[in-house]
Amino acid sequence: MEKKYSDDCIFCLIAAGKAPSKKIWENEDFLAIENKFPEAPIDILVLPKAHLEKSEARTSPDGYWDSFMKAIWEVVSAGGYDRTGYVLQNNGAGYNHLEHEHMHILSGMPKPTSA
Ligand SMILES: [Zn+2]
Ligand SMILES: [Zn+2]
Predict the structure, then answer these.
(1) Ligand that lies nearest to the alpha carbon of residue 8, given by its number in the listed order
(2) In the CATH scheme, what is the homologous superfamily, with its name and number, of domain 10-107?
(3) Is the sign of the CA dihedral 85, 39, 92, 80 positive or negative?
(4) Which parts of the chain register pLDDT below 50?
(5) What local confidence, expressed as pLDDT, does residue 1 receive?
(6) Ligand nearest to C-alpha 48
(7) Fewer CB in 10 Å around end: N or C, the chain?
C-alpha cells in the first residue's frame, strides 16, 4: 500500500511518531490509540497509518476495508470488548473532527434496554 502523508494532519504526525499518543495496538498499516477527547468511557481510535481522506474511503483499493475491519476486530478482541460490549462509530460530513479516516471503538456507556 502506498503510504501517503500529510504534514498538517495530527493522525499522520502520530503515525510517524512526531506527535504523542497513547498507543494501544498497531500492525504494519493500522494503529489504535486512545482518543484524547473521549466521547465515551472507552474511546479508541483505529486509523490507517497512511493518510486517507474521508472522501477517498469509497474508492480505496479492494481489500482495504477488509484489512481495516480486521484491525478493528483485533483491538476489540484484545480489549475484551467482544465480551463487555462496544459500538463502532464512523463520523462524516460535518460530524467528523478530522479528515484522516478512522473508526471509533466506544465502550463502557449504558447499554440500550431494547434491541
Ligand atoms: Zn493524515
Ligand atoms: Zn472521530
Answers:
(1) 1
(2) HIT-like (3.30.428.10)
(3) negative
(4) 1
(5) 47
(6) 1
(7) C
Tens digit of pLDDT for each residue in 27-47? 999 999 999 999 999 999 999
How many Å lie between the centroid of ligand 1 and the Cα of residue 46? 12
Which ligand approaches the C-alpha of residue 99 most closely?
A: 1
Query: How far does the centroid of ligand 1 lie from the alpha carbon of residue 112, in Å?
Result: 34
pLDDT value of position 115: 66
Cα(5) to ligand 1 centroid in Å equals 6
CA of 85 from ligand 2 middle (Å) equals 19
Ligand 2 centroid – CA 41 distance (Å): 15
Residues in the chain: 115
Q: Please name which of 72, 61, 107 lies closest in space to residue 86, comparing C-alpha atoms.
A: 107
Coil, strand, or helix at residue 13?
Answer: helix
Which pLDDT tens digit goes with each residue over 64-73?
999 999 999 9
Domain assignments of the chain as residue spans, ordered by start: 10-107
Write out the three cell numbers for 111: 447499554
Distance CA 92, CA 19 (A): 24
pLDDT of amino acid 57: 83
